[in-house]
Amino acid sequence: MVAQLPEMIANHIELGRRYSLRPVINATGVILHTNLGRAPLSDAALRHLVEVAQGYCNLELDLESGLRSRRDIHVESVVLRVLNGASARATDPDRHGVIIVNNCAAATFLALNSLAEKSEVLVSRGELVEIGGGFRIPEIMEKSGAVLKEVGTTNRTRLADYESALGPETGLLLRVHQSNFSIEGFSERPSLQELVELAKRTGITLFEDQGTGLLSSLERFGINGEPSLLQSFACGVDLIAASGDKLLGGPQCGILVGRKDLIERIRKNPLLRAFRVDKLTYAALEATLQEHLSEDATTIPIERMMGVLSEEIMRRCRQIAGQTVCSDLALNVVPVVSLIGGGTAPKASLESFAISVRHVTHTAAELLAALRRLEPPIIGRIADDTVLLDLRTVPPEFDADLASLLSSL
């Protein structure tokens, strides 16, 4: 025991120096895994983040005039250029503006507090959602000072329900992305275009919590029906809130884009200072948006993960299983389905393959815990008392490391 003390002391010191926030290998098959930090950043976003972080930058300085500027200017033009794919109006800075805050929940709260404090906000009962972490639309509305007025029923809401609920106290129409669930069967919901026309006819602002930040259709991945930020903007929604770290594939942030007069009202809210983001977020977001403007969106990791063929994943699974040398493990390659996750596309799944791992003595839960203790930790999932490692969410450059780590068990 005494002879082992130097090694034990060294290990203890090393553990004390280890960062708490560490990289992991996501082998869950969930592309936007909230517990694992959602969207990985592209190489371009990382490079721009580093070059901005390692020194000073023009965060709030107009280099032309030398005067103080506002920080949203660094992404406003590129957001509107991206949206220009849906409408030529997007390039008109007198019509539209952009605000960036620390997440979509903050964007929703800030918009409600700025535009509808002490006013009624009409929301379909089928859209009073709760997402991860206990975020509930009714509670966020109450905190914002807005007055919730429910319309329709859980499964069926018609345009007439909105029309009959309108009154002198109505301040806002709110449309909420259903995020992590779907209503099927005997259900009905007005189209976004119908709500846009109602807003124009009545003069009541339409605000949509679009949520996902999706810019292009997911039909190329075999996923239908997921609404996009582009579609909302093209429809003429007055104000839209979206996430930067979901299907947009960038850093955690909330994006507010809409009519210039509404954006200016929100900018005057003193709470904006509490919700604003730093230079690192702007750098990563600007680079991610520039990637979306390029002809090859596969430079964005989540785009690449969604697009990889299941046959390629199967080949990699077989190769890793063949390279793993551990007498205590039984490895097989099995078909599975991957999920997009992150409160997006709740009905969507992608065909994939995984390495099925069983240990001769450990239970699946014990094996999963052992994988988490590796360096780097491997995060998998359990199905039918077996650990599954879905390679859709594992970059190919980690394949050799994965085989080596499995062999060390």
Rg (CA only): 24 Å
Q: What would CATH call the architecture of the largest domain?
A: 3-Layer(aba) Sandwich
Count of individual helical segments = 15
Shape: globular
Mean pLDDT: 91
Q: State the helical fraction.
A: 25-40%
Note down, in words, how this protein is organized.
The protein has a seven-stranded mixed beta sheet, sandwiched between helices. Strands 2-12-13-16-15 form a five-stranded mixed beta sheet. Strands 1-14 form a two-stranded parallel ribbon. It starts with a helix and ends with a helix. Strand 8 (170-176), helix 7 and strand 9 (206-211) form a beta-alpha-beta unit. It has 15 helices and 16 strands. The protein is α/β, with parallel strands linked by helices and 409 residues long. Helix 3 runs parallel beside helix 11 (279-293) and helix 4 (104-116) packs across helix 5. The chain folds into two domains: 17-41 and 302-407, Aspartate Aminotransferase, domain 1 (Alpha-Beta Complex); 43-296, Aspartate Aminotransferase, domain 2 (3-Layer(aba) Sandwich).
SSE diagram, text form:
Blueprint: H1 5-17, E1 25-26, E2 30-32, H2 43-53, H3 73-83, E3 96-101, H4 104-116, E4 120-124, E5 130-131, E6 135-136, H5 137-144, E7 147-151, H6 159-165, E8 170-176, H7 192-202, E9 206-211, H8 229-235, E10 239-243, E11 254-259, H9 260-267, H10 272-275, H11 279-293, H12 301-307, H13 310-323, E12 329-341, E13 350-359, H14 364-372, E14 378-379, E15 381-383, E16 386-390, H15 399-407
Parallel strand pairs: 1-14, 2-12, 4-7, 4-8, 8-9, 9-10
Antiparallel strand pairs: 3-11, 5-6, 10-11, 12-13, 13-16, 15-16
Helix pairs in contact: 2-11, 3-11, 4-5, 13-15
